[in-house]
Amino acid sequence: MKKTLFFSILLLLLSTMLGACNSGEKQNASADGKTEIDFFHRWPNEPRKSFYDEKIKEYMEQNPDVHINVDYVLNDAYKEKIRVLVSSDKLPDIFTAWSDSFAENLVSSERIMPLNDVIKEDEEWSSKIIDSQFGGFTFDDTTYGVPFTVDGKAFFYNKAIFEEHNIAVPKTYDELIAALDQLQDAGYKEPLVEGLTNTWAISHYLGTIFERVVDPAVLEKDYNAETAEFTDEGYVQGLEIFEELTGYMGEVSTAIDHEAARNMFAAGEVPVLYMQFAEIKMVEGAGDVEFGFFDFPEVEGAKGDPTALTGAPEGWMVSKNAPEETIDFLKFLTSEETAADFTKTDGQLNAIEGAVTEENVNPASLEAYELITNATSTAPWFDNAVNINVADVFMRGGQSLATGQTTPEDILKEAQQEAQNQK
To answer: What is the CA radius of gyration of the chain?
Structure first.
C-alpha cells in the first residue's frame, strides 16, 4: 500500500513538472483536434472589433478544422504588449503591425516569418496588393509583413468658413500662418487645435515638419540609430515652427486628446485640424461639416522635401512558429472581398487593388486615396521612423513647448544625448 501511494505521488509530481515545462510552449491544437491560430489586433473599439469578430466567425465556418483565438488591446498598450511577447518568444501567430522601425524592431528578434516565398508562390493573391506599400515591411530585400491599410496626413479645413472670409487654401507655410491670422481676426480664438495630450499626434506634426525643413540626406542618417546625431539646425527650425503653430491652438489643446479635437472640428467650432485620411468617416459621423484638405505646405527656402506625404501602411505579420494554416488566414484577411468590406464598414482605405471604389467610399475618401497612391514620395510616422526613445524626447518636448516650459535648443540637446545612448 505504501509503494502504491509512493508511485501515485511520484506520477503526480512528474505530471506537474511536465506541465510546468510545457506551459511556456505554444500549443497549436485544441482538445478536439482543431488547429488553433492566435490572432492579435489593436481594435477593441467599434466598428473594427465587430468587423474582425464577424470575419473570424466567417473563416472558421469555411474552415471547420481551424479555431481562431482572438485578443485585442488599444494602441499604446498594444505596442507594449507586442514588445513583451516578442522578447519572451510568445508571439501570437498573426498580428497587426505598424511599418518601418516598429516592424524592423520586431524583425530583429528573428521571430518573424519571412514572406518572400509566400508572396512569390501565390501571385494571384499577392499581385493585388499595391506593390509600393510593401516597402515599410521589407528589410535587406526580405519582406516580413503584408500591408493592409494605407493612410496619409493633411490639414482638413472647413470650406464654408474659408469661403465666408475669403481665405485661400495655403500653398506655403507663410500663407498658412496668414490664413490662421485671418481666422483669428474673424473671431476664431483657436483656429487650429490638436489633442496635445496624445504624444503620437505631436510626432505626426514634427515628422512632417522635419520632412519639410531638414535635408533628406540628413534625415536618412539620423533616422538610422547607428548613425543618428540630430545636430542639424533644421531640427531647431522645425521645433520653432511647431511652437509657432501651438500658439494658435490655445490652452484647450493642452487639456484634450485628438478625438476631442476632431469632434470640435466636426461640430464646426474649429476651422482647421491636422488629421489622417482614416478619420474622414469619423468626421462625417460626428457632424455635418463640408470639408476639404491640403498637404502640409512648403516651407520656402528650407532644405527638405516640399511635397512628401506623411503616412504609412499598417499590415499583418506572422510568427516564425505559426502553423501553416496561418498563411491561409493571412490571405483571407487581405483578400479583395475582405478589404472591400473593411473599407465600407470602417472607412479606412486599404492596400488591395480594386477594393476601394465609388461603391464603398465617398468622394472625399476617394480623393484622399488618389493622393496617397499617386504621391511622389511618402514619409513614415516619426515615432515609427526613429528610435522610440529619441521620438519620446521630441514628443514630450513638444508638449513642453506648447506650455512654454522648454526651448527647441533644449529639446535638441536632449535628443542628441539620447541618440548617443542608443549606440
So the answer is: 24
